[in-house]
Design brief:
It comes from Paraburkholderia phytofirmans. Belongs to the aldolase class II family. It holds the Pfam family Aldolase_II. With about 260 residues, the protein is α+β, with helices and mostly antiparallel strands. It has a single domain, classed as 3-Layer(aba) Sandwich (L-fuculose-1-phosphate Aldolase), CATH 3.40.225. Helix content is about 35%, strand content about 15%. Helix 3 crosses helix 6. The protein is globular, with a radius of gyration of 19 Å.
């Protein structure tokens, strides 16, 4: 039997500020939660977060690691152009980053520095809805939160920085974007906010597909009710999403596998 080489990641704790280490732990937790809730695509996709106090730099996953393996120390620090600023001394592997990660994420972090976190997924419900001409329908209270979601037309694998301008235009001031024939994207001023948006967007896609699969007439909601419900979900009318339940989600991860903190 062939023995696989041992794989380990030396701790980056001593090389980080206290603020950066906390960000690393929260970001690693976010990767684990995306996997836990069935939204990962093996080693594909990315979740990025800005490095506190270091303008123009952010953390992203090592290309080749599964979301369920990501730890605080495994994250790679890059700039908005994709240059690696620091990474751990991987033992048994030599991981870098995926170009699509910095093309999409770097564009948003550069243009909107107030946004701490960007999440992009290829879940099957998200991809299915992204392929529907009707897009996301406001069928449930949860999906009404995304009543005015943006759409970005498919232009091929996102490797060309020239696509950044249209991506930002289509995102606009929304916190969520459907990448047509591709997947989902959410942003947040904090990691918990971005995760909450993705969790709810994913749930909206799942429920829509389930309702449409029943092959019976869908129940529409009056436009004025849709508008009012949408406004009730906006930042100016309620507390920030995700912050209240984030400690509970971390406790959940700690009960399952606390190694994300390493």
């Amino acid at each position: 039997m062939t023995k696989l080489p041992e794989f380990s990641i030396p701790s980056m704790f001593e090389q980080c500020s206290e603020a950066e280490w906390k960000m690393r732990v929260d970001l690693a937790a976010c990767y684990r939660l995306i996997a836990l809730y069935g939204m990962s695509d093996m080693a594909a996709n990315h979740i990025s977060a800005c490095v506190p106090g270091e303008e123009g730099s952010y953390l992203i996953n090592a290309y080749g690691m599964l979301y369920e393996e990501v730890t605080a120390s495994s994250l790679i620090k890059i700039d908005i152009d994709g240059n690696i600023l620091s990474k751990p001394a991987f033992v048994g592997a030599d991981y870098g980053i995926n170009r699509a990660g910095y093309v999409i994420h770097g564009a948003i972090h550069e243009a909107k520095p107030e946004l701490e976190c960007v999440i992009h997924t290829h879940s099957w419900p998200g991809m299915a809805v992204s392929a529907l001409k009707c897009g996301l329908l406001p069928l449930t209270q949860t999906s009404m939160r995304f009543y005015k979601i943006g759409y970005h037309d498919y232009c091929g694998v996102v490797l060309d920085v020239s696509e950044r301008e249209s991506l930002l235009r289509d995102l606009g001031e929304n916190n969520a974007l459907i990448l047509r024939n591709h997947g989902l994207l959410t942003v947040g001023k904090t990691i918990p906010e971005a995760f909450n948006a993705m969790h709810r967007l994913e749930l909206s896609c799942r429920t829509q597909l389930a309702a449409m699969a029943c092959n019976t007439e869908l129940n529409p909601v009056p436009r004025d009710v849709l508008e009012e419900t949408y406004m009730n979900y906006q930042p100016q009318t309620r507390r920030p999403y995700g912050l209240m339940e984030w400690p509970a989600l971390l406790r959940k991860l700690d009960r399952i596998d606390p190694s994300y903190r390493d």
